[in-house]
Amino acid sequence: MRKKIVAGNWKMNLSKEEAIQLYKEIDAKRKTISLKSTLIVFPPFIYLDCLKSFNLDIEIGVQNFYPEEKGAFTGEVSVSQIKNMGATYTLIGHSERRMYFHENHEFLKLKVEAALKHGLHIVFCCGEPLEIREENTQNKYVKKQLVESLFHLSEENFKKITVAYEPIWAIGTGKTASSSQAEEMHAAIRGFISDKYSKNVAENCSILYGGSCNPTNAAELFACENVDGGLIGGASLKSEDFLKIANSF
Ligand code: 13P
User: Fold this and answer.
1) What is the CB < 6 Å shell around ligand 1?
2) pLDDT digit string (tens) for 26-39?
């Protein structure tokens, strides 16, 4: 059975005190319910060390890193430094990194390699902008993102990847993909993986949905056969909303 995952991408939000409070609230509230999903949070990495020190049973990941081992890369953080701080997951390929920081397919491929080398679990984000959706070429667009940055991997390494489909037009806009739009794309992604690797690899790959997912629409999205959870932005900043979403299976 595929792993169900609900992950919170905190992006560049929260003071240290707010981050601690949110993390502790998530832990306290999750103990009052029986969740079917694994929880992961992706805080700004300056809070990693502090959050890890509470030793709570919630996976922590990073939103970004630089794929070199070490050296003169002012302002950057390496995978080994991240691992050293206790992170176990990383996002790669988020549309905000592709868009604002010009991370292209080739660079994302280097990030994928670096993360795998150090044993970080990867949540690889893909998704199309509005103009591509309007042209109805979103499947081709998303396939290219997977082919260019992931499909060079061996089957053994690909099995370590979680995919997150995040249509850019739905991120932070309040305009979520309908469950049928999400299901259609998730099924297509599973098909691409099956064609490249095998049906078995595809069946075991968790594919998360992201983009204005909230406590009201999560249950309908998560009920889709090929939707295995969510990558949550805005709604992950409130423990109650995040837990309601995580409890929507
Ligand atoms: P929102 O949930 O705020 O739309 O953000 C989604 C996202 O980008 C998660 O990575």
Assistant:
1) 9, 94, 166, 171-172, 210-213, 231-235
2) 999 999 999 989 99
Q: Write out pLDDT tens, residues 82-126.
A: 999 999 999 999 999 999 999 999 999 999 999 999 999 999 999
Report the nearest-CA residue for atom 2 of ligand 1.
Answer: 233
Q: How far is the CA of 70 from the centre of ligand 1 (A)?
A: 30
Identify the burial level of 221 via C-beta atoms within 10 angstroms of its C-beta, where 0-12 means exposed, 13-18 middle and 19 or more buried: buried
Is the alpha carbon torsion for 53, 56, 62, 63 positive or negative?
Answer: negative
Active site residues: 94, 166
Ligand 1 centroid to Cα of residue 18, in Å, is: 19
- Is the pLDDT at 175 greater than 90? The verdict is no
For residues 6, 164, 128, 79, the Cα torsion angle rounded to the nearest 10 degrees is: 110
Q: How far is the CA of 125 from the centre of ligand 1 (A)?
A: 11
- The DSSP annotation for 138-166 comes to HHHHHHHHHHHHTTTS-HHHHTTEEEEE-
**Which tokens in the block code for residue 165?**
């489909």
Q: Determine the atom of ligand 1 nearest the C-alpha atom of 214.
A: 2
CA separation for the pair 30, 26 (Å, rounded): 6
Torsion over CA of 193, 90, 71 and 75, rounded to 10 degrees? Answer: 130
